[in-house]
Design brief:
- It is a single chain.
- It contains 18 helices and no strands.
- The chain is mainly α.
- Helix 6 packs antiparallel against helix 8, helix 9 packs parallel to helix 11 and helix 12 crosses helix 15.
- The longest helix is centred in the middle third of the chain and has 36 residues.
- It is globular, with a radius of gyration of 21 Å.
- The termini are far apart.
Length: 426
């Protein structure tokens, strides 16, 4: 009974998906100590696996966003992407470059800039933030994830050149200068065009199947959609065409099998954590990791002072502090570290302990805040019925958790918000 109570208490503090990732990392560390894999990060299969895991996580982030709602509030999107994502990544990378004067810290700083949406979705049930503040944090995390992936991959070639090395990194565009970026953009456009063509074909098949079944049917088409997505992930992983994956996630949905994407993201998190443990056998670099973790956590607190007043007015003081302490790292930071390791050796040994620093700071600071709030409740908390920001209300409705119980499941899984007109799914 005592063990059960301890486990339940732990699950309320730390999402179970995070506990699972820690256990997977420890298992990988143990396996690595026994097997001692030689130059694992240098193999072609390793790069393909890292790219495939990255594609799964990236698609899982973008497919949860409603494209129609984004078009209706361009201002909110621009604020979230520029202030909430790009500026924060710039602050972290700038701190690391000033502290260590090494080009690789440009991309390492970007790699931990995102708020992990998987962890945010998992903590929604146990968090003491208001529903409005939770919606804002998840919206922020949803933009953080894909944008930081793309920034890290495209800036990797700049860091590669600044370090005085010849050639091109595996994670960045192939070729020199603007030609390399344009070529990479062209291949991404081709892949998106192929995905769009498959999407239209599958949608036509769904409608025909629905007409024959009197409005039902289409599950077979959903299965074909999953197969098509797996093919897309493999193609993107082989050439690191992650821009195509991010764009495809905005329109290519899998209908009745959408929960499989959530499970795939969780499995990818655990596989990536195990691979992280395998590489940690080579050791860690604690000083840069400590600075990186503190810089990421501090940048979130700093940038939230700019983002929160623009996107959401009238939050309580405690909500604003929770958002400032909202930095969490998870699947994307781990997989980016794995993907960057072949080009920037030692990345895993810095990013992995930095993730620990960020998450320890997050849980410790929020725990202290909750304990303090229990002793002296905030007198200025506004009622939940206050006017909602149209961007958050449309993209992430306040009643999403009630309409979709999985959104409040502390065991993990992406929050899924219903997109109006789900007929747009494949």
């Amino acid at each position: 009974m005592g063990a059960r109570l301890s486990w339940e208490r732990l699950s309320r503090i730390v999402p179970l998906i995070v506990v699972g990732a820690v256990l997977a990392t420890m298992a990988g560390l143990g396996a690595g100590a026994v097997v001692r894999p030689h130059d694992l990060a240098g193999s072609a299969r390793y790069s393909l696996l890292a790219g495939f895991l990255l594609a799964i996580g990236l698609y899982g982030s973008t497919q949860a966003i409603d494209l129609g709602a984004l078009r209706r509030d361009v201002r909110g999107v621009l604020v979230a992407v520029t202030l909430g994502v790009v500026l924060k990544a710039t602050v972290i990378a700038g701190v690391m470059l000033l502290a260590f004067h090494e080009a690789r810290f440009l991309v390492l700083g970007i790699a931990v800039a995102q708020i992990d949406p998987l962890s945010v979705a998992a903590m929604r049930a146990s968090s003491r933030m208001s529903e409005r503040a939770k919606a804002l944090l998840f919206a922020w995390a949803s933009f953080d994830d894909p944008v930081t992936v793309l920034l890290a991959l495209y800036f990797s070639i700049l860091a590669f050149r600044w370090s005085g090395r010849e050639g091109t990194p595996r994670t960045g565009p192939s070729g020199d200068g603007a030609v390399g970026y344009l070529t990479d953009l062209g291949w991404n456009v081709v892949l998106v065009a192929g995905a769009l063509l498959v999407f239209f074909v599958l949608r036509a098949m769904r409608r025909r199947a629905g007409a024959r079944a009197g409005g039902g049917g289409g599950r077979g088409v959903d299965l074909l959609s999953l197969v098509a997505l797996a093919g897309l992930f493999l193609i993107a992983a082989d050439s690191m065409l992650m821009l195509a994956v991010a764009v495809t996630g905005l329109f290519f949905r899998v209908g009745a099998h959408a929960e499989l994407i959530d499970r795939a993201v969780s499995v990818a998190f655990l596989v990536a954590s195990f691979a992280l443990g395998l590489l940690l056998v080579d050791g860690v670099d604690l000083l840069p990791a400590l600075v990186l973790g503190c810089a990421a956590f501090g940048a979130q607190a700093l940038i939230s002072l700019l983002v929160v007043p623009v996107l959401k007015h009238g939050l309580s003081r405690r909500d604003r502090v929770h958002l400032a302490l909202g930095q969490q790292n998870g699947i994307t930071a781990i997989i980016l570290a794995l993907a960057l390791e072949p080009d920037f050796r030692g990345t895993v040994g810095i990013v992995a302990p930095a993730i620990v620093v960020v998450n320890v700071l997050h849980y410790a600071s929020n725990g202290v805040l909750n304990r303090f709030a229990d002793r002296s409740p905030s007198p200025d908390a506004p009622p939940e019925a206050d006017v909602e920001d149209p961007f958050l209300a449309e993209v992430f409705p306040p009643d999403a958790a009630a309409a979709h119980p999985r959104a409040a499941d502390p065991r993990g899984g992406h929050l899924r918000t219903p997109a109006p007109g789900t007929d747009a799914t494949a």
